[in-house]
User: Fold this.
Amino acid sequence: MRDLSFDVAGLSIKIKPLFFVASAFSWAALTIAAMALLNLPLTSGIIAGLLATIAHWVGAFVHQLGHAIFARQTGYPMQGIDFGTMGGFLSSSVYPSKEPMLPDAVHLQRALGGPFLSLQVTFIGALMVLAQAEGVHGAAWFASVFFVLENLFIYTLQAAIPLGFNDGEVIWRVLRKQRN
Assistant:
């Protein structure tokens, strides 16, 4: 199977085959989690798992969009977004392969864009969770809580932890270099 490719807002979007495998796995795992945590029946669990899987990819897109917005402001824009990287579960920013050597400030600004926008949607998601605080906690509530937690921990706070492949790695590399 080949990558699916299309353009959105001037960005080349590629969906890699592992995206579909990872999405199916995520859907199944999140269905089981929703059923176990909320004691949901099968149909509601399947809907909760699907909504949470969609929320995952929406969060990934928003995060990458943050990188794209900040990169465009530097004058060194992103070319696109690849979905289904790193085992199929993640997305990656795509920059020109022949970019000139860029100042650290450009790398720092581009790296901060994703976590910045992710933090904003975390707050919006938290409002959605609070709006559903009363009453039955079903599929929509599960997906909303998942969206908030994933955006907070995976897409926002990861910027504080250098893992070798994430925003935190770029941010800390630049900060350590400036300190020396």
Q: What stands out?
A: The mean pLDDT is 95.
